[in-house]
Design goal:
Distance between the termini: 34 Å
CATH architecture of the largest domain: 2-Layer Sandwich
Bound molecules: NADP nicotinamide-adenine-dinucleotide phosphate
Helix content: 25-40%
Shape: globular
Structural class: alpha/beta
Number of strands: 17
Number of helices: 15
Length: 491
């Protein structure tokens, strides 16, 4: 599935060449692909924006960006190669005649052409129209678009429909950068290449699943975006639901994009709706107050620059949900994500059911469950908690929990983990859509999210304050400990 076939001529056209995403993510990822010899030599990387730069001014800006944002040093020989691929084209997307000019420098009949929209979502339609009206949308062209795809089912449908007037689904690559993480990719091999997991992945053996995506940072000046969006739409609708679908989908027929995406959509459509009647018991919304995160005193959300003093935007969400199909009947899934939590981490923990009998009652009354922890970041790897006899000469069995641990650094010391954007840019060049989100996935996830956010509004649920540097409002313990007699896996 991941063979590199980048032997074709292609042009990568980046709308938003001056923007934050391009500077921080796309350019460093492209430079690293160059370093790894993954970019075909005749490739052109064409930055598009309203600046009046010529190619050499643009190269200078790119070099400055790389020096600022690369996490490795800039090698002058690689830079020379990379620089030879850089071009800048001045274009205001509101000026339709510019697209006709763009046609003069592109050759979409012969070259694969990828248009990367590192632009605000409200510009997607006008770019598509500009490209379409200038016949720059033939079968050799692809568009890569960034989240968020809308902020509700209704707006997502509108965006999908507008784009689909100009590009077929097979040409549309919707990014969720979690899908480009090596550790997310490994979920498929973990589940479907290991018989121990392949054969033991349902409600007969799994008790429950926890998915945590925690951030240490606050909103980092992004209040304009975040005030309107909140943690639910910023993180759950995309990253957490993507992880949930990959961890719970049934085996796809093969590794083709649509086989995988068909299975993911089935999960999304089987998610039990959370509505006015059950939103209070199945969700907790939080907002951080001031506190200390890893020794540093930080402000409350309400005191962040730009945030309204009476803002009801949530910075933390925890959800208990169920998947109503035969594989997962009765298994709760607990999701939580928030800002200003004690550490930055993304992990999935699978709790297996306990043994039906305890033969070791004399020495260990309450034998813990086996637990599979998938560390997406940091300390990328997987560990399995098992119960082991403590070696000694006593006739009684003394038991303890131990971990079978795999981590990437020790097992694959020569293979550094690629950045998600490296992978996703490469896959868009190759034309493999399995790491990109299909229109019906986006819509099914918004449908489920809308039901929760609408219920929050209609039941007037306000976010509960939690101290920055803690694991969210105390109420999340009520859901998992008091109601379900389980516990959060807090490291
Ligand atoms: N930044 C991130 O880390 C991040 C993460 C995930 C998703 N995203 C998504 O990525 C997209 C871009 O985000 P960003 O943070 O990079 O935004 P940004 O910094 O505001 O950059 C947006 C770019 O749009 C260009 N632009 C706006 N109007 C234009 C017009 N009429 N003609 C030509 N260019 C125009 C701007 O060009 P000028 O310089 O000419 O004004 C600018 O380069 C958004 O959809 C965002 O939601 C970003």
């Amino acid at each position: 599935m991941y063979t590199n076939k980048t032997t074709q001529f292609y042009d990568l056209v980046i709308f938003g060449a001056k923007g934050d995403l391009t500077k921080r993510k796309l350019l460093p990822a492209l430079y690293k692909l160059e370093k790894k010899k993954k970019i075909f030599k005749n490739t052109r990387i064409i930055g598009i924006g309203r600046a009046n730069w010529n190619n050499s001014e643009y190269s200078k800006i790119v070099k400055e960006n790389l020096l600022n944002f690369l996490d490795c040093s800039l090698d002058e020989n690689i830079w020379k190669l990379f620089k030879s691929k850089l071009f800048f084209y001045n274009l205001d997307i509101n000026n339709t005649s510019c697209f006709k000019q763009l046609k003069k420098i592109l050759d979409t009949d012969s070259n694969i052409t990828i248009y990367y929209f590192a632009m605000p979502p409200n510009t997607f339609e006008i770019i598509c129209k500009g490209l379409g009206d200038s016949h720059l949308n033939n079968k050799n062209t692809r568009i890569v678009i960034e989240k968020p795809i809308g902020d509700s089912l209704k707006s997502a449908k509108i965006i999908n429909k507008k784009i689909s007037k100009y590009f077929k689904e097979s040409q549309i690559f919707r990014i969720d950068h979690y899908l480009g993480k090596e550790t997310t990719l490994n979920l498929l091999s973990l589940r479907f290449a290991n018989s121990i997991f392949f054969n033991n992945w349902d409600n007969k053996v799994i008790d429950h699943v926890q998915i945590t995506v925690s951030e240490k940072v606050g909103i980092e000046g992004r209040w304009k975006y975040f005030e309107k969006t909140g943690q639910m739409k910023d993180m759950v609708q995309n990253h957490l639901l993507q992880l949930l679908t990959i961890i719970t989908m049934s085996p796809p027929n093969n590794l083709e994009a649509n086989s995988i995406r068909d299975e993911k959509v089935k999960v999304l459509n089987s998610l039990r709706l959370i509505n006015n009647n059950n939103v209070n018991i199945n969700t907790v919304r939080g907002q951080y107050s001031s506190g200390i995160v890893q020794g540093v005193k930080v402000n409350s959300y309400l005191n962040e620059d730009g945030v309204k003093k009476n803002s009801r935007t949530e910075t933390f969400v925890s959800i208990r949900t169920h998947i109503d199909n035969s594989r997962w009947e009765g298994v709760p899934f607990y999701l939580r994500t928030g800002k200003r939590l004690p550490i930055k981490c993304s992990k999935i923990v699978i709790f297996f059911k306990k043994t039906p009998i305890n033969l070791f009652n004399n020495s260990f009354i309450n034998i813990p469950e086996n637990k599979l922890t998938i560390r997406l970041e940091p300390n990328e790897g997987i560990d399995l908690q098992i119960i082991n006899k403590i070696p000694d000469l006593q006739s009684e069995y003394l038991l303890d929990k131990v971990k079978l641990n795999f981590d990437y650094i020790h097992t694959f010391p020569k293979n550094s983990l690629s950045d998600a954007y490296e992978r996703l840019l490469l896959e868009s060049m190759i034309g493999n859509q399995s790491l990109f989100v299909r229109h019906d996935e986006v819509e099914a996830s918004w449908k489920w999210i809308d039901s929760i956010t609408n219920s929050w509004s209609s039941t007037n649920q306000t976010p509960i304050l939690y101290k920055a540097g803690t694991w969210g409002p105390g109420e999340i313990s009520d859901m998992i400990i008091n109601q379900d007699k389980r516990y959060w896996d807090n490291f």
